Amino acid sequence: MKQILVIDESPLLREYLRLKLDNPEVEVIAAINTLDGISKLRTQVPDLIIMDYHLKKDGCREILKQKKESPNTVNTPVIIMAQHIGQDRLIELVPYDVKKVFTKPVRIDALCGAIQAILGVTFDIDETPGIVEAHANDDIIFVEIAQGLNRDKLDLLFFKIRELITLYEIHLPKIIVMVSDITLNFADAPNIKKLLEVILKSSGTAPKNVRFLTKDVFLRKFIEGQKEYADIEVISNLQYAMNGLLANFSDPAEYDGKEAEILEQRVLSADTTAKGDFMHLRFETEEKTDGENIKEYIKNLTIAVVDDDFSIQELIKNTFKSLEPTVKTYSDGASYLADAETEGFDLVFLDLLMPKPDGFDVLQAMRTGNNCPPVIVLSVVTQRDMVIRAFQLGIKSYLVKPLKPDDILKKTMEILKSSF
What we know:
Elements: E1 2-7, H1 12-20, E2 26-31, H2 34-43, E3 48-52, H3 59-69, E4 78-82, H4 87-93, E5 98-103, H5 108-119, E6 131-137, E7 140-146, H6 151-168, E8 174-180, H7 189-203, E9 210-213, H8 217-224, E10 233-235, H9 238-244, H10 259-266, H11 284-288, H12 290-298, E11 302-306, H13 310-320, E12 326-330, H14 333-343, E13 347-351, H15 359-368, E14 375-380, H16 384-392, E15 398-401, H17 405-416
Parallel strand pairs: 1-2, 1-3, 3-4, 4-5, 7-8, 8-9, 9-10, 11-12, 11-13, 13-14, 14-15
Antiparallel strand pairs: 6-7
Helix pairs in contact: 1-6, 2-3, 6-7, 13-17
């Protein structure tokens, strides 16, 4: 039997591989941190190690040293996934039989191809074109589906939604599924059903809390024709989709004509404080390691803050100060764009409303350039239409001013810890 040891704090990869390698000849062994990984190396003899580079307390290097010191694992091949890794760090990995280093987000077909080449196992990969992305903003999870319904990516979506719910401690998920650049027909019916099942089962939410945003006629008719999905609303306007979710917050009489204000406060709010009495789904020891985990992911990054408000620049700089990334601030879009190609930023915080070029001009320039790092849009409550316009430009992550350090860190972790 072939054994794959996956060392990653996130369950996304290992759960996907277990699902994909449902095979008596392959076993996926999970290790959730450095100590667990070292323990598994001492008791198991894996045929392949897949590891997150950003394990806390320099854990990746410790595991590689342990692997090299044991005669049982010295020749075990390694695949590493990293958000950011410099040339000097790559050179350090050479003595440890590291076969591949994938930069996150990883292309799942490339990862499966590497595993197949190393172990000789066979993967049934769905090569259908398709884009599947998911992000959370307050209690709403935005799912984007484009170009096609790829079954492998839908499997990943299941675990991604669960990961977002855990990260943001969402107790009553509301989901907007945005389907674009796609024309569906009867042949796609099984994949549509799979998408619907993934959305509902992964979130545990009721169909009434799900909105589909699409102009595809067949998708609309399919959902409307299925009794179990009768409460899922299919619409073609994003603003209406967000407004529609207000109906599920509480008694409509509460709104008293203030729907727009409540939308701004509840949907476009960065406040992730838990509502009601709920039990924490983490142990105390896990809570204590959060700061260390964040630091391992962030300390080697280069972050840009593009905002003409000096106080926002200082707030974000101070939020990251103890975590030791490189943070560069820009008071206008032109100065940022002048540096963007040479600096190689890993993450950008971008204000929408600035003197020309404004945030939208910057986004357009980034889309046509060679360097397009993840972007977190900064907005104020009254800029709801601007946030929707940013969505249409492909930006799914935003924070609403006034900003809070905890929200900045959570949103950063959502973007940077995404493996796929």
